[in-house]
């Protein structure tokens, strides 16, 4: 049998580019993000959705806090634009003007800031702080590495496949090796290869039986055919990204950036059985054995980039809530003192009015006695007591009651 010159890989240099390419280790954690790429049709669509959600949620939170800050600024500047009904008391005085001098001091302005913040439920403030901080952190620190970086384990497995002589089954003829100068070389094939399968191995696996290597190990290429095995539809995913023609699932697919799978597939083992035949029926391997190890690095990243910011936000809100509670206690004491002061004033006024009323009543009695003594038949109220006094004498208690109720 004449010798034929073939392309042979006998050594190689294996290196990972860490300058322009990023890598991730937790394949299990990043796998759902790659599925999102597939379900949305392309990595670009998935990136658009994630960044759209990130910007949308953050923009809502920024808008909320912009409105809150604008409200605080307007309130502290006392400009009166968009003034709320609760900014004025029953007498029409501004509630922020605590001493009633018509001007806001620094202390009153600070109290006004706390008064505006106290208006909001702390839970809502917490939610909006989280909406402001978490989406960019999650997207840039958790989603983006899985989107843009390469799976270290899957890439290493893939490149070892190239060492062993396997090409990409799904992007022929892109991996067709031709001389750079176009000159004819003995090692360059005149035409690109085919995606192919081994008829006996794939047929046995499809039937659910173990292939018998003694039937083909001495001349494995004899049963190699172009295309995909008839009936292998379960291994053929038509929804894969950038599908050109039907191929079976394989580790050697050209999409290493979007490939989170770290196992060999039947297609890969079939190719290895053709290139490196094993005639031992017991040791020959035709079905993949895949051990997935959960590294849980993704969970640690979530803890670092999600849990810690959340705890810091909660701490901020609790601190803010404590300040508001202190302010509320001070407000309650201030209102109580103001109420007691007004109550005292009204009671003093009422006592004064009652004294006046008693005085007029005494005058009335004195006048009636005089008229009776004069034999007058007139029994009406002493004319010198004005009607307004009678009405006024009853008004303080009503006035006090109205204020007390208020
Ligand atoms: Zn490759």
Automatic annotation (TrEMBL):
The superkingdom listed in its UniProt entry is Eukaryota
Q: Key word 4Fe-4S present in the record?
A: no
Alphabetized GO MF terms: metallopeptidase activity
Keyword terms, alphabetized: Coiled coil, Membrane, Transmembrane, Transmembrane helix
Q: Which residues form a coiled coil?
A: 329-356
Tell me where the signal peptide lies: none
Residues crossing the lipid bilayer are 48-68, 112-134, 302-327
**What name appears for this protein in its UniProt entry?**
Uncharacterized protein
- The organism of origin for this protein: Chrysochromulina tobinii
